[in-house]
Amino acid sequence: MEILEATPKMVEEQMEFTVEKQPHPLQRSFTMWYLRGDRTREWLDCLKQLVAFNTVEGFWAIYNHILPPSRLDFGSDYYVFRKGIKPMWEDDNNAKGGRWLISIDRTKRSARLDAFWIELLIALIGEQFEDSEHICGIVVNCRHKGDKISVWTRDAEKDDINLRIGMQLKKLMDIPDSEQLLYVVHKVAAVRSGSMVKPRLSIPRQLGSESSSQME
Ligand code: MGP
């Protein structure tokens, strides 16, 4: 069809056809998981794989059909991980890793929770992180005590790479210096609970720490 010969209606139809037939592929495929908190069941049994996607259109179709984090019950989580990586410490890709943790103050929930989550989702699937190879996935935990958003990275010992990811995350979310981002090693988190977990890295550095951000 020569565009010059076509009526506006025909052009419109042709464009619709092209858009429908040629979705925009993402560089990688991802899988979305959901966990509905239930203290009567094992954690692993609460985790459900929802759907995989590998196109921009596929992502938005899913995003538009599920509840935003702010509307989930407390105790629920979403996980978006590279396809083939299970969102758990036990997966080989996570076993040596850790996560950058953003704790969302309860008073800032309405302004931040959904906004941070979509911002991070877009950064993840759009490969905006310079070190995206090292990122396994992202998580949002909806909690009455305060929600958490985290970026799981593959190797907790690669401090330089993890710090770069943390700095990018801080910039992306526009997190002020007064709020610290903490990098927690999964193996440490797996044996200790909540606030007792000592981070390996922090941004900004822990006040009073000697020479580096590392706090092994
Ligand atoms: P959580 O959901 O990450 O944080 O871990 P929450 O609910 O805010 O609790 P807190 O301990 O951080 O204050 C809660 C619990 O879920 C953990 O103590 C584990 O029992 C279980 N859990 C969480 N993760 C991410 C895993 C995992 O990857 N594997 C297994 N086996 N259990 C997990």
UniProtKB/TrEMBL annotation:
The species this protein was found in: Steinernema hermaphroditum
Sequence similarity: Belongs to the eukaryotic initiation factor 4E family.
The name this protein goes by in its record: eIF-4F 25 kDa subunit
One GO cellular component term noted in the UniProt record for this chain: eukaryotic translation initiation factor 4F complex
Top-rank taxon, per record: Eukaryota
GO molecular function terms noted in the UniProt entry: RNA 7-methylguanosine cap binding; translation initiation factor activity
Entry keyword set: Initiation factor, Protein biosynthesis, RNA-binding
Pfam families, alphabetized: IF4E
